């Protein structure tokens, strides 16, 4: 049975959405194509009509996820004009973000996997990170005499600490320690930049 172009496009989007969630929950190597297609409500045989390979799906799902992340961060920053960076930090270093990796940050869930899955996946993550750096750099408080380099360095540091704190908070077995990691990182980030 042939599928219309519209249905094929919808199926592709569904595969990307499901794969994005399942990759963040299980890692790239922790879920197979058959399970992704089943979760999308499609047959395994139809996969190659949409993607060249699992690696291709990993890269495209990562790009789609990181584009959604960019939009989410942009909305959060814009909707909190009095303290945009503080609002971003609070939203990112939250229990909700920690407890639901399938809908959370792709960097915190997949960074180690991305380093082992070739240049096409690494490029997707690099391309997804660049606009986030620019957004955070714009939200960093003014730095006297800065030509933009200090703001960018501060943005890189803020993002690195947020991602690292979320990874550690997810990794530990103790809920108390996990909360302590999130709280300490939030307090540090806000205190160091008067955010």
List the keywords:
single chain, 195 residues, mainly alpha, globular
Say how many strands there are: 0
Mean pLDDT: 92
Strand content: under 5%
Order of helices and strands: HHHHHHHHH
Report the span from N to C terminus: 57 Å
How many DSSP helices? 9
Query: Uncertain segments of ≥5 residues (pLDDT<50)?
Result: none
The helix content, as a percent range, equals over 70%
Radius of gyration: 18 Å
**Helix-strand category:** mainly alpha
Main sheet?
Answer: none
Global outline: globular
Describe this entry's structure for a reader.
The chain has 195 residues and is an all-alpha fold. 72% of the residues lie in helices and 0% in strands. The protein starts with a helix and ends with a helix. The chain contains 9 helices and no strands. It has helices at residues 5-26, 33-39, 54-78, 84-92, 95-99, 106-115, 118-139, 149-171, 175-192. The protein is globular. The longest helix is centred in the middle third of the chain and has 25 residues, at 54-78.
Would you summarize the structure shown here?
With 195 residues, the chain is mainly alpha-helical. Helix content is 72%, strand content 0%.
Set down the secondary structure blueprint.
Blueprint lengths: L4 H22 L6 H7 L14 H25 L5 H9 L2 H5 L6 H10 L2 H22 L9 H23 L3 H18 L3
């Amino acid at each position: 049975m042939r599928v219309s172009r519209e249905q094929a496009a919808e199926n592709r989007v569904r595969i990307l959405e499901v794969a994005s969630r399942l990759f963040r929950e299980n890692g790239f190597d922790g879920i197979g194509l058959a399970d992704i297609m089943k979760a999308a409500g499609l047959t395994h045989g139809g996969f190659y009509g949409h993607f060249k390979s699992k690696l291709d799906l990993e890269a495209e799902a990562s790009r789609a996820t990181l584009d959604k992340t960019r939009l989410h961060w942009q909305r959060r920053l814009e909707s909190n004009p009095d303290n945009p960076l503080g609002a971003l930090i609070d939203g990112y270093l939250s229990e909700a973000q920690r407890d639901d990796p399938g809908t959370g940050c792709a960097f915190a869930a997949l960074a180690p996997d991305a380093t082992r899955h070739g240049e096409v996946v690494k490029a997707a993550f690099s391309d997804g990170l660049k606009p986030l750096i620019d957004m955070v750099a714009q939200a960093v408080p003014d730095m006297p005499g800065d030509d933009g380099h200090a703001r960018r360095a501060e943005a890189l540091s803020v993002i690195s600490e947020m991602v690292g704190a979320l990874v550690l908070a997810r990794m530990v077995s103790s809920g108390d320690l996990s909360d302590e990691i999130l709280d300490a990182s939030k307090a540090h980030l806000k205190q160091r930049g008067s955010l």
